[in-house]
Design a protein that fits this description.
Strand order of the largest sheet: 2-3-1-4-5
Order of helices and strands: HEHEHHEHEHHHEHHHHH
Strand content: 5-15%
CATH class: Alpha Beta
Shape: globular
Largest sheet: 5 strands, parallel
Distance between the termini: 50 Å
Radius of gyration: 19 Å
CATH architecture: 3-Layer(aba) Sandwich
Length: 294
């Protein structure tokens, strides 16, 4: 990186955190993409980011860490990291900081609508709504076995669960707190099993958090919708956001969403998968195979 770029980055960083600490305007109505990691949330966010009105933040952990250190489920060096965040965890002063940080990002990008994606938000719905009462949500769902296998690939070649597996520790603790999932972490003998339990916990938490919200604040879709009918699906999302259908979004979708992922039939589900994945696992597969055959 050149000296000029380093200086620019430092200046932007200084301005960002000064903005957060001063009584500056705040974001009031962001949009959050909700879904378990490896569900297609990244490609959805990247595609929508091509809209000239959307300022997209792809997993801005540094912003959340500055405002709310307990969101760092990947390192958790302080021991204060929490997977589940509720209304009670939202503090007025810290919430003002994250609203200002989001506003600053929209300003430097020169785009008014802030769209953010962070998979851990599946466990943060009440927390987010306390900070951003007017927030809207795009909930993306995907076949649980596909998600589990995708997570396993990343986990076996990267750092999916953070330092010393801290994220998995928190997921396991969360599972133990519910009668329905208590004991399931002990059954997870592979990265696929761990991915499947993460999918289940994330999906159930997201559905519970979104339940009862006004229909005009939630847009739900399946990954197959994005792959099989990208133009129609993206047009519907843009309409939900109150935006005109941008040709830039369609062009990016055609170039990037080029093929459907393989579908796994119900005969591919082992009994252990059913136990760990829960009652919604079969439904997630039926939905996608049904669309693929239509």
């Amino acid at each position: 990186m050149s000296v000029r770029l380093v200086i620019k980055a430092l200046a932007t960083g200084l301005a960002r955190y000064l903005y957060a600490l001063l009584p500056c305007p705040e974001i009031s109505r962001p949009v959050f993409i909700i879904g378990c990691g490896r569900s297609g949330t990244t490609i959805l966010g990247e595609t929508l980011s091509r809209h000239p009105q959307i300022a997209y933040l792809n997993e801005p952990r540094h912003l959340w860490l500055y405002a709310y250190p307990q969101t760092d489920i990947w390192a958790g060096a302080s021991g204060a990291a929490k997977l589940l965040l509720t209304e009670a965890d939202a503090e007025p002063s810290r919430s003002r900081i994250i609203r200002r940080l989001f506003r600053f990002e929209a300003l430097i990008k020169g785009r008014p609508l802030l769209l953010e994606k962070l998979p851990a938000h599946c466990f943060h719905l009440g927390f987010l709504l306390r900070i951003f009462p007017a927030a809207r949500f795009i909930h993306l769902r995907r076949n649980g076995l596909e998600v589990a296998r995708s997570i396993a690939i990343v986990a076996e070649h990267g750092n999916w669960h953070g330092e010393d597996g801290h994220k998995w520790t928190l997921l396991a603790q969360y599972a133990q707190e519910s009668e329905k999932t208590r004991g399931l972490p002990a059954l997870c003998r592979s990265s696929v099993d761990q991915g499947l339990l993460e999918w289940r916990l994330s999906t159930e938490a997201a559905l519970q958090g979104l339940q009862g919200l006004p229909k005009e604040t939630v847009f739900e879709l399946d990954y197959e919708d994005l792959l099989g009918r990208p133009a129609e699906t993206l047009a519907a999302i843009q309409a939900f956001l109150g935006l005109e259908d941008a040709p830039e979004v369609g062009r990016f979708a055609l170039a990037s969403i080029a093929r459907k992922s393989p579908k796994l039939g119900l005969d591919a589900v082992a009994e252990s998968d059913r136990l760990i994945g829960g009652e919604r696992l079969a439904g997630s597969i039926k939905q996608e195979t049904g669309r693929a055959d239509a």
